[in-house]
User: Which sequence fits this backbone?
């Protein structure tokens, strides 16, 4: 059964059938071709069941919130504030893009929104300052991927629903790793800026920093409201997505007055399209995961893995390598929904914290967003800079190495993930 599923799935991907349809078709054909007692109608039943989860309501609202923020002037103010704080350091514009992306990540929960909102402003600015398209594109590609590590995060919602793990715990667990990734990218930018003798921006006075902070305070409050409300138990992550959407609309339309009524239909349509793609993928992948579980494929794979070693860190390294490989040719959602049901029973037997493993998975997925051929952050940033993949891979590899170092750091030091959830929620 497993061989049948994966062969069909691989063939469909090779002929460029969309991911969601590849998952659904491989599920149906595997049931028809394999000698199994599972009824074919289970495909429809599982697709419906997977898509009716209340927690999934957060996905369209966070996507919509990201669109409203991008068009409502919030990203411009975040960029201005970030530049006033770190712009004077060597390679300051690159650092400003990373800091701004980290702020925006605390609002949108989407890599594409993070990369597009900040990259459209700072990639051209970095090019004008002599950074070169390769560095400008590379730093924004990896900075944009932080969007799914720092809460809120759409992939964390999907992972929480799939693995039945606390979404709030995952949100809290992503804080320190997200900051570590940002710091690692900033260090890399500084080293490259020194080698290339890149300029730094004029140092802003404390008054200028304060003024840019005041100008962006309403934008920053989006992150404070979302994370603070979840931490304080005022609302759930799903409710937070609705509040973030309402707040982004009010600030963009009534306060900054950059969000126009004519922008709303386009934003709504794009939100609907993106949501449809994500939810259809979740539904199809859930069916495939259920069939694999019913045929005890995860247990069989676990036996194979345990035959190599029973050391949890060796197994975590092997799983990391598997996820990094899968991230090069699959998007976040199908990887989570296909892989998590298979590997989660394994890490449970090893005594690994679900929150720890969940964040390790998310960081793996963030790296996958930056790698060809399907990395969404990579293609958004290259679309802005109009540069070919071949021209940036040398520089991009340096930033990817920084992210991979952080990945293995949090893999071997679990408390970097579990510390905040343990302090705030008493879970780890």
Assistant:
């Amino acid at each position: 059964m497993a061989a049948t599923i994966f062969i069909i799935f691989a063939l469909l991907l090779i002929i460029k059938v969309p991911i969601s349809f590849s998952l659904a078709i491989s599920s149906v054909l595997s049931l028809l071709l394999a000698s199994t007692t599972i009824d074919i109608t289970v495909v429809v039943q599982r697709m419906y069941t997977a898509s009716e989860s209340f927690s999934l309501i957060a996905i369209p609202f966070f996507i919509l919130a990201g669109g409203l923020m991008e068009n409502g002037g919030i990203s411009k103010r975040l960029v201005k504030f970030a530049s006033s704080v770190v712009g004077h350091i060597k390679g300051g514009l690159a650092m400003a893009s990373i800091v701004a992306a980290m702020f925006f990540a605390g609002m949108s929960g989407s890599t594409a929104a993070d990369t597009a909102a900040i990259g459209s402003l700072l990639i051209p600015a970095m090019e004008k300052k002599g950074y070169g398209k390769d560095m400008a594109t590379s730093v924004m590609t990896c900075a944009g991927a932080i969007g799914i590590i720092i809460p809120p995060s759409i992939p964390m919602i999907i992972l929480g629903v799939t693995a039945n793990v606390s979404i709030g715990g995952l949100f809290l667990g992503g804080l320190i790793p997200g900051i570590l990734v940002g710091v690692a990218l900033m260090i890399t930018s500084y080293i490259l800026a020194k080698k290339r003798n890149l300029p730094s921006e004029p140092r802003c006075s404390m008054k200028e920093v304060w003024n840019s902070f005041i100008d962006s305070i309403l934008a920053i409050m989006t992150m404070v409201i979302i994370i603070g409300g979840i931490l304080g138990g005022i609302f759930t992550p799903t409710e937070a997505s609705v509040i973030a959407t309402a707040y982004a609309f009010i600030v963009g339309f009534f306060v900054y007055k950059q969000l126009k009524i004519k922008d709303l239909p386009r934003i709504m349509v794009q939100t609907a399209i993106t949501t449809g793609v994500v939810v259809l993928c979740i539904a199809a992948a859930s069916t495939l995961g259920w069939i694999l579980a019913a045929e005890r494929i995860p247990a069989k794979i676990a036996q194979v893995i345990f035959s190599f070693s029973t050391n949890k860190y060796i197994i975590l390294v092997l799983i990391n390598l598997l996820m990094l490989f899968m991230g090069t040719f699959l998007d976040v959602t199908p990887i989570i929904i296909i892989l998590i049901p298979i590997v989660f029973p394994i890490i449970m037997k090893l005594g690994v914290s679900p929150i720890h493993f969940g964040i390790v998975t998310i960081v793996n997925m963030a790296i996958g967003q930056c790698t060809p051929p399907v990395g969404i952050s990579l293609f958004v940033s290259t679309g802005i800079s109009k540069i070919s993949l071949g021209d940036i891979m040398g520089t991009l590899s340096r930033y990817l190495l920084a992210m991979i170092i952080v990945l293995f750091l949090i893999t071997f030091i679990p408390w970097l993930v579990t510390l905040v959830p343990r302090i705030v929620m008493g879970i780890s």
Remarks:
- The CA atoms of residues 277 and 293 lie 24 Å apart.
- The chain has one domain: 55-274+297-425.
- Residues 55-274+297-425 form one domain.
